[in-house]
Amino acid sequence: MSGEISNLKIYMHPNIHSSTFYSSQDMKTTHKCPRTKKMWYTYTMEYYSAMKKNEITPFAATWMQLEIIILSEVSQKEKDKYYMISLICGI
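Above: the chain sequence. Below: its structure as tokens.
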């Protein structure tokens, strides 16, 4: 039983970490997944470069919608994972 609990902790820790990186300002230290790091760093830099020029681009609106979509997808995956863990472990 204790082996199952330690395995759950391994899977839970990255999810907790990933829920905090959306609001962080330091992009290089918050991401662990190279694919995710590249995607968020690119979108953030393009968004802020448009802000520095005092331009509102269509990309900014798209970026905001992308953030909402990704957050909702992550939220749904976490719900699915929780229910799967509950069914397997009988929590």
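The two ends are 12 Å apart (CA to CA).
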